[in-house]
Specification:
InterPro entries: DUF6596 (IPR046531), RNA_pol_sigma-70_dom (IPR014284), RNA_pol_sigma70_r2 (IPR007627), RNA_pol_sigma70_r4_t2 (IPR013249), RNA_pol_sigma_r2 (IPR013325), RNA_pol_sigma_r3/r4-like (IPR013324), WH-like_DNA-bd_sf (IPR036388). Belongs to the sigma-70 factor family. ECF subfamily. This protein has 430 residues and is mainly alpha-helical. It has 21 helices and 2 strands.
């Protein structure tokens, strides 16, 4: 197979697999079987396209191939009668009438149901699954990523990811999760699970929790792609647009967050001319859509509004820090969290001085949820530097370095600890 054809197959699969699996799940009622049929179509493409060439409508080719695989599977299946009944057709034992149910299957697969993809998203992110399983299944079924890609993205062994996906599909089958979009309060609860998965995927790409890379842009791109799809499927949901806005604006900083050698570059040191203004514009538009829904801003939209303050400012000094502090206060009232309070402390320190921020940070020192959270001593160290308490600051940076699992971040924190010694020596020399 030529490299070009392989790339085309990969690209088509990434774009079409979710719709393909969604349509097959609607017909079969089994997400595991649907993925198997879709994978069969992919294998057929890998075998045939290098010889026959890429078809003019590759997505339609995959669907047609999957359709034939589905019919073959139904023929062989002991559940043929039940499957046919689900399609509203009665199967007669006489072979001459077989085309009736075949035609029913074909019509069901040819039918365009706009909610299919949304239903697949809600299934992949079903709360009956663990958080890790939801992430893996969403990236696999909706994102079209391979097991190996998911494993490498999250620095997890490939067999572990494979087991999560298999167990997730079994769990969905055992729970008999219906292929439908929930309604009412159930929709709101389930939508929260979907947004949480996209947020987790994006954050892992924006600030990798472990490994030798500070960021993993490919994960950010995937989360944004899925978020944009969800926004088009649920145009009236403020929080969906809020999350898209947050991801777009945050992702605009990615080119400036990493230095020439892959080292982290903090916000105050970033070259803002390297921020992607196209992504900023898209994010601000999404934030405007969230606000125009008429609903009060939720947690994601509030975070997007905070990100917008940074995006609109030309520098750290000209940033509207009092507004950011107020937005964090509103966020804390809506979703109380020690991490939100830590971020609010940073904003307060910028708006009203490091001493005011340090008071808030010190109030979090004994919060159980922040034990082992490396950003607590990191933020405290930064505030202590601003207050001239360099010895204490060095100890905080070293403590933070011992907590993080990211190699790049550890090196940055140790450099900041060493810088405290340099500043101390200069003072003594003076």
């Amino acid at each position: 197979m030529t490299v070009d054809v392989r790339r085309v197959v990969d690209a088509v699969w990434r774009m079409e697999s979710a719709r393909l699996i969604a349509a097959l799940t609607r017909v079969t009622g089994d997400v595991g079987l649907a993925e198997e049929l879709a994978q069969d179509a992919l294998v057929a493409a890998l075998e045939r396209w290098p010889e026959s060439g890429v078809p003019d409508k590759p997505g339609a080719w995959l669907m047609a191939t999957a359709k034939h695989r589905a019919i073959d599977t139904f023929r062989r299946s002991e559940r043929l009668t039940r499957k046919t009944a689900e399609l509203g057709r009665e199967l007669e034992q006489h072979e001459a009438q077989e085309p009736d149910w075949v035609a029913a299957v074909e019509r069901a697969l040819d039918e365009v149901v706009e909610d299919d993809l949304l239903r697949l998203v809600f299934i992949a992110c079903h709360p009956v699954l663990s958080r890790e399983a939801r992430v893996a299944l969403t990236l696999r079924l909706v994102g079209g990523l391979s097991t190996d890609e998911i494993a490498r993205a999250f620095l997890v062994a490939e067999p572990t990811v494979a087991q999560r996906i298999v167990r997730a599909k079994r769990t969905l089958g055992a729970a008999r999760v219906p292929f439908e979009v929930p309604v009412g309060a159930d929709f709101t609860a389930r939508l929260g699970s979907v947004l949480e998965v996209l947020y987790l995927v994006f954050n892992e790409g924006y600030s990798a929790t472990a490994g030798e890379h500070w960021t993993r842009p490919a994960l950010c791109q995937e989360a944004m792609r899925l978020g944009r799809i969800l926004a088009e499927l649920t145009p009236g949901e403020s929080e969906v647009h809020g999350l898209v806005a947050l991801m777009e604006i945050q992702a605009s900083r990615l080119p400036a967050r990493v230095g020439p050698s892959g080292e982290p570059v903090l916000l105050q040191d970033q070259d803002r001319s390297r921020w992607d203004r196209v992504l900023v514009g898209r994010g601000l538009t999404a934030l405007d859509r969230a606000e125009r829904t008429g609903a009060s801003l939720g947690p994601y939209a509030l975070q997007a509004a905070i990100a917008a303050c940074h995006a609109r400012a030309g520098s750290v000094e000209t940033t509207d820090w009092p507004r950011i502090a107020a937005l964090y206060e509103a966020l804390a009232a809506l979703t109380p969290s020690p991490v939100v309070e830590l971020n609010r402390a940073v904003a307060v320190s910028r708006a009203y001085g490091p001493a005011a921020g340090l008071d808030l940070v010190d109030a979090l020192a004994d919060v159980p949820a922040l034990r082992g959270y490396h950003l607590l001593p990191s933020v405290r160290g930064d505030l202590l530097v601003q207050l001239g308490r360099l010895g204490e600051a060095r100890a905080e940076f070293e403590r933070a370095a011992g907590m993080t699992r990211n190699d790049r971040e550890r090196a940055l924190l140790l450099d900041r600890a060493a810088a405290c010694d340099v500043l101390t020596d200069r003072r003594l020399g003076a």
